[in-house]
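Hi V.,

Quick status before I head out on leave. The structure for the redesign project is tokenized and pasted below; the design run finished overnight.
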């Protein structure tokens, strides 16, 4: 009985596998049947394609997307607008309107295509079904036929409009590719926004003929002229600001003007360039694909630089005028305030830059431009840029960390690499330090985050200053302590006078080492007190040494020992 159960289980498993195999074969057969019967092309069905006008000429090829664009642009360059009109889907028009409006719409569409978009010929299929055989297998449209292709997107009246081509078929005819009906309906509005200006229409016909790179001869001539006009505007702006600077002394107005001189000149260049372009010329899509992002980039970042330069000039002027006072002990709150203000200023700069980048990306539609494709293909450049951005971001975060943690504040006295300095400025990538002899040290912010340094005014600006004296072993230490106590009592820069000490801390074969300790209220006064303390005790030691000059050996100042052999 027990042997029966394994046999039944094996039989059931075999039956299940056979059923699954039969279902798989059936599904495969159905798929093959469907594939065999679904031979209809992937198209838009229309009752009558452009009925009411003559058949399309033989030299207008419309069987593939690439052939359609090539034939349309060739007809446009020849000025054969009747032939170009057969590349448009005008099923929304009556037969009479098709005959009359077809050439006009073709001429307008040609100017729009030439002047507003850059055709990606490498991504435009040359197959009737528009299957892209060059794309990656990860692309969801890889290997799939298409009946609608977007050539580009442009802005019209505050909204985005697509220029598309579609594959259409009328009963009993082969499918053809045409500019989509919706695109044709939008042609008048597109032409009003991207068609030639009044000035261009007045140019001689010879200048409106193709030159090279799909450019017209007037574009080849006009582009350098527009650039020269913009350079002249920038030069005049630079000179005008320079004249204003000479009228002011070294005050806050002069500092602000110096700070904004370069960004305002750049803004004048970009603004003049954009104004002349918009008023007089409508360049082709190839030039616009390069100029539009560059122009927007210059305008946005020049405007941001003007704002930031004004802010920097005001804050730097205030900080520089009071940096001497910040180092005093009673300006603890001021050091905290200006350090926090410096951090907030840097955060504001980062926010403004991010906003500027966002505006540029939104205004230029970089993912629709030729520049995005070039950037995406530049793998090595992208890696280098990412590495540089990582370093820059690290410096910015280190700068903010210093400011918010207040490990080094504006006005703090620090000992950095053996130099006694005051912190003058905390920037994105560096700290500016002023030494006691008015030298300026530019130190990377990473050094203040990763390495140790001395901050003499972090908690309490008071310091214990130390001076060493090397005296003869026979010097009277008790007498020197009385002299030191007198100095401590009379010097106003010595605080906590009861903690001042004179100690013998070492000796050498020729001298003993005395250490003088006294506390000062801040580093600046402490340095001066330390020098006075050393000078005072040396004078006293010299005086006592001179008083014992009649003795055979000196009693205070050390001498080199000599051994005489008689």
């Amino acid at each position: 009985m027990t042997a029966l159960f394994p046999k039944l289980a094996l039989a059931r498993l075999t039956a299940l596998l056979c059923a699954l195999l039969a279902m798989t074969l059936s599904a495969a057969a159905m798929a093959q049947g469907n594939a065999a019967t679904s031979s209809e092309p992937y198209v838009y069905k229309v009752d009558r394609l452009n009925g009411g006008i003559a058949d399309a000429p033989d030299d207008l090829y419309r069987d593939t997307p690439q052939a359609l664009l090539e034939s349309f642009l060739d007809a446009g360059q020849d000025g054969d607008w009747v032939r170009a009109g057969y590349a448009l889907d005008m099923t929304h028009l009556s037969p009479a309107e098709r005959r009359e409006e077809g050439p006009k719409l073709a001429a307008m569409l040609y100017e729009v295509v030439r002047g507003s978009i850059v055709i990606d010929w490498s991504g435009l299929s040359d197959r009737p079904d528009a299957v892209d055989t060059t794309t990656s297998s990860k692309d969801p449209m890889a290997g799939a036929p298409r009946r609608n292709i977007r050539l580009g997107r442009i802005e019209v009246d505050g909204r985005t409009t697509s220029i598309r081509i579609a594959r259409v078929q009328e009963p009993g005819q082969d499918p053809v590719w045409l500019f989509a009906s919706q695109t044709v309906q939008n042609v008048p509005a597109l032409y009003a926004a991207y068609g030639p200006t009044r000035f261009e229409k007045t140019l001689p016909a010879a200048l409106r003929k193709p030159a090279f790179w799909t450019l017209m001869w007037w574009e080849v001539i006009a582009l350098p002229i527009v650039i020269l006009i913009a350079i002249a505007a920038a030069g005049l702006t630079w000179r005008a600001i320079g004249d204003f600077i000479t009228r002011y002394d070294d005050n806050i107005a002069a500092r602000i003007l110096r700070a904004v001189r370069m960004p305002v000149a750049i803004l004048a260049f970009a603004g003049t360039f954009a104004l002349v372009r918009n008023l007089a010329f409508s360049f082709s899509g190839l030039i616009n694909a390069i100029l539009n992002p560059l122009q927007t980039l210059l305008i946005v970042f020049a405007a941001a630089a003007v704002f930031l330069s004004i802010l920097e000039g005001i804050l730097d002027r205030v900080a520089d005028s009071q940096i001497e006072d910040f180092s005093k002990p009673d300006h603890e709150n001021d050091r905290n305030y200006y350090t926090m203000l410096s951090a907030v200023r840097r955060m504001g700069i980062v926010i403004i830059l991010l906003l500027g980048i966002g505006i540029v990306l939104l205004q230029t539609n970089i993912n629709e431009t030729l520049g995005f494709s070039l950037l995406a293909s530049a793998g090595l450049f992208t890696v280098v840029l990412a590495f540089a951005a990582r370093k820059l971001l690290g410096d910015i975060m280190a700068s903010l960390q210093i400011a918010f943690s207040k490990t080094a504040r504006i006005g703090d006295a620090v000992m950095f690499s053996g130099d006694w300095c005051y912190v003058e400025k905390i920037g994105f990538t560096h700290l500016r330090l002023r030494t006691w002899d008015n030298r300026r040290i530019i130190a990377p912010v990473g050094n203040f985050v990763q390495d140790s340094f001395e901050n003499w005014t972090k908690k309490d600006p008071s310091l214990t200053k130390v001076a060493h004296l090397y005296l003869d072993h026979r010097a009277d230490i008790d007498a020197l302590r009385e002299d030191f106590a007198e100095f401590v009592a009379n010097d106003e820069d010595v605080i906590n006078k009861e903690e001042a000490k004179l100690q013998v801390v070492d000796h050498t074969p020729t001298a003993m080492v005395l250490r003088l300790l006294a506390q000062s209220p801040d580093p600046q006064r402490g340095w001066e007190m330390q020098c006075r303390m050393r000078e005072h005790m040396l004078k006293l030691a010299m005086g006592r040494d001179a008083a014992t000059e009649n003795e055979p050996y000196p009693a205070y100042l050390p001498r080199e020992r000599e051994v005489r052999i008689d």
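Above is the designed sequence. The first helix runs from residue 4 to 37.

G. will cover questions while I'm gone.

Best,
W.
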